[in-house]
Amino acid sequence: MLRLSGPMALAIVGKVYRGRVPAEKLNPRQVYSGEIHDANRKLDEVLLTYFRAPLSYTGEDVVEITCHGGVLVTRRILELLLNSGARMAGPGEFTQRAFLNGKMDLTQAEAVMDLIRAQTELALRAANEQLSGRLGTELTEIREELLTTLAHVEAYIDFPEESIDPDTGKTLLNRIEALNRRLDRLLATADQGRVLRHGLRTVIYGKPNVGKSSLLNLLLGYDRAIVSEIPGTTRDTIEEVINVRGIPVRLIDTAGARATTDEIETEGVRRTHQEIDQADLILHVVDGSMPRAGQELMDRRRSVLLLNKSDLGLHADWANTEGIRFSCKERFGLEDLNSAIWGRVMGGTTKLDDVRVAINARHQACLQHAKAALDAAQTSLQEERSPEFIAIELRGALDAVGEVVGRVDTEDLLGKIFSEFCIGK
């Protein structure tokens, strides 16, 4: 599908389109069958749809041409349109125009890219929630409350002779605390948002021959890594993505952790430790059928212990150890592992329907700035400082929240966000 947007869209299409109804007489939101011609030569039979401003995706006149989709025919039609007065859209330009024309706020514009990149049902649901305006609505309410609070304070500053009370100190404190709580709830979703967008970076770690590569193959459902009883078989990291109950999990199989004189294997072990430093979660695999000696455990806050080869019998050393009884050979323990991964990411959330809003890194930075400004305003109020100080901090919080939804005129910000879009969106 080829899309044109702008006041000349219909006129440009009219130069190459042939149909029973001329392009200039097309009714909006109806699909017309016709042909695209290069001079007197037909290139393709197409379907054409016209959307009249402002009732379109971008808020401008939009024409969409659906052709047969071959690489050559699509390129030729595109060349015809460019030669007729159109120009190539920049990355994300259609969505940027929709934002600039008030068809969506900035959080919804970002959600379009999240929707395109979604790898799981849960990520798709979160993107759709944001695209529907849930996050924008929440932030707009926070912004309105900030505006109201700031208006009271500034009215007191500007008209002290009128004895306008900016609220009692206690009431004003309560308002700021309520706003802080709302920001805290949004900030608490940052980790979930990062995982849903980019995947849970999960490292499979352990000594040689404990079953790390077997675990990777089992979770993927096919043989991706070579499995061998020879220590040091895996020398480089292997990365694949799986879906665990809607959560994208980026599995990274690593070289066995052991001292070695082999130069290549040493580099593999170094990369293993590098991946561990960057991991969100570590699946620490041990041989549960062997003594515990030499299989030291990792920090449980970032790791899940898998007592692999439990089908051979659990060694007495592991009897009182908290971990998942697992067997790659017999395929048991998978549900317990999936539950552990879900619990680490979602916490108390147990259903897909519970995932409503998940902020991204840009939102997080802005909201942290807003919260810091509110904290400063609260301190100024408690220390009974001049109202001017309180107003400055409240305005800082207002600007930070406004930046999330695009209520601040920042060209650099818009350029950065929309540059990440693909051409045609």
What's the gist of this structure?
The protein has helices at residues 9-14, 71-83, 93-100, 106-117, 121-131, 134-158, 169-187, 190-198, 212-220, 263-278, 334-346, 361-382, 387-405, 411-418, and strands spanning 2-5, 17-19, 31-38, 41-51, 62-66, 200-205, 238-244, 247-253, 281-287, 303-308, 324-325.
List keywords for this structure.
Rossmann fold, 14 helices, alpha/beta, 5-stranded antiparallel sheet, 425 residues, Gyrase A, domain 2, Four Helix Bundle (Hemerythrin (Met), subunit A), single chain
What would you note in describing this structure?
It is a single chain. The strands form two sheets. The protein has a six-stranded mixed beta sheet, with helices on both faces. The protein is of the alpha/beta class and 425 residues long. Helix 6 runs antiparallel to helix 7 (169-187) and helix 12 (361-382) packs antiparallel against helix 13. 45% of the residues lie in helices and 16% in strands. It is flat. The longest helix is centred in the middle third of the chain and has 25 residues, at 134-158. Mean pLDDT is 83; it is low at 230-235. Strand 7 (238-244) and strand 8 form a beta hairpin. The protein folds into three domains: 2-88, Gyrase A, domain 2; 128-189 and 359-418, tRNA modification GTPase MnmE domain 2 (Four Helix Bundle (Hemerythrin (Met), subunit A)), CATH 1.20.120; 196-352, 3-Layer(aba) Sandwich (Rossmann fold). It has 14 helices and eleven strands. The termini are close together.
